[in-house]
Design brief:
mainly alpha, Rhopdopsin 7-helix transmembrane proteins, Opsin, glycoprotein, disulfide bond, receptor, membrane
Length: 385
């Protein structure tokens, strides 16, 4: 019986890219990923994905609806950040240029969501090859741009906190750094698009596209290793270094305050110490860990996916597994505006003034500052939340 089933199994989809990928077993039709792709487009579909059965239509619809929800949430959150930070005079500071750029990166990543949703409702590669290229190029620009912008934010806060009197960011320096970010991201989006080095490909359920991490040629392995280093290792190293220095500075500052208070035979040098429910060290450590965790959660799945595809066991990369990193990146883009902006005191005040129906009830504390505070601990309490 088993031999008869094996004989009835149609293996042509593994050797003939132009074959329609269906099999008949137990009087039922098994459709493989790529079954509904036009013959001329099959050349763009990696053979690795075509060996897996196509997901149920309900799974495609579920992913499409999830992305619609994320798209709305991202446009609202990041749109408000761009609107408020760009139009409010009190928020037009050099340091906040980085927050605006991060919101812009998080926003443009969702400009490609209509392609994903269209593919999802079409159960695969419905939008075609050009749309796949556009999807992957926008993803490269926005993803690498967001990673390097996070590194710039970490550097800015590091300078403000560790060198409060000479570390203030100028608008010229901030603009130059933003121009560098986009220049830095450009090769990793343009070179694969033109197939000069590396290339883009559909991945997973063929509804999303990314750079090719499945081709095992030396040239492509070098590309994967390079983009892993420049888009993940370098910004991650900067972020971890700057925030670790910030936390170290805070602990050292707090220790010196406690030692001074002990010498003066007082409980604390802070007048409002009793009203604080947690120590400054704990607040800053939690904020720094949150920032690092968000970046790790966003890009580590993609880094692992790419390295596994290029250098590891590709059998671990099922279509469902390949869809997880794409989802985590979009999810983080929705959360970013709440971490970097909605926790911002002046932003909440401005938002309450312009949209009073939100009922934020934010006290108008004129003493609250963002990244311009000269005292290390007051800067930490506002820039790290």
């Amino acid at each position: 019986m088993a031999a008869e089933k094996m004989a009835a199994f149609n293996w042509s989809h593994l050797v003939n890219p132009a074959a329609r990928m269906t099999d008949r077993m137990d009087n039922s039709i098994i459709q493989y990923i790529g079954w509904n792709v036009e013959v001329e487009d099959l050349i763009h579909i990696p053979k690795h994905w075509r060996q897996y059965p196509a997901p149920d239509k309900s799974l495609h619809l579920l992913l499409g609806m999830i992305y619609i929800f994320l798209c709305v949430a991202a446009f609202v959150g990041n749109g408000l950040v761009l609107w408020i930070f760009s139009s409010a005079r009190s928020l037009r500071t050099a340091s906040n240029i980085f927050v605006v750029n991060l919101a812009f990166c998080d926003l443009i990543i969702f400009l490609m969501m209509p392609i994903f949703v269209y593919n999802s409702f079409g159960q695969g590669f419905s939008a075609g090859w050009l749309a796949c290229q556009v999807y992957a190029m926008i993803g490269s620009f926005s993803g690498i741009g967001a990673g390097m912008t996070n590194a710039c934010i970490a550097y800015d806060r590091y300078m403000i906190i560790t060198r409060p009197f000479e570390g203030k960011m100028s608008r010229t320096k901030a603009i130059i750094m933003i121009l560098f970010v986009w220049t830095y991201a450009t090769p990793w989006a343009v070179l694969p698009m033109l197939e000069i080095w590396g290339k883009f490909m559909p991945e997973g359920y063929l509804t999303a596209c990314s750079f090719d991490y499945l081709t095992t040629s030396y040239d492509n392995k070098l590309f994967v290793g390079s983009i892993f280093t420049f888009s993940y290792v370098i910004p991650m190293s900067f972020i971890l270094y700057f925030y670790s220095q910030i936390v170290s500075k805070v602990f050292s500052h707090e220790k010196s305050l406690r030692d001074q208070a002990k010498k003066m035979n007082v409980d604390s040098l802070r007048a409002n110490q009793q009203q604080k429910s947690e120590t400054a060290e704990l607040r800053i450590a939690k904020a720094a860990l949150t920032v690092c965790f968000m970046f790790v959660m966003s890009w580590t799945p993609y880094a692992v996916l790419a390295l596994t595809g290029a250098f590891g066991d590709q059998s671990l990369l099922t279509p469902g597994v390949a869809m997880v990193p794409a989802l985590t990146c979009k999810l983080v883009s929705c959360i970013d505006p709440y971490i970097y902006a909605i926790s911002h005191p002046k932003y909440r005040i401005e938002l309450q003034r312009r949209l009073p129906w939100l009922s934020l009830n934010e006290p108008n504390d004129t003493q609250s500052t963002v990244t311009e505070s000269s005292a290390p601990l007051s800067a930490l309490s506002t820039t790290m939340t």
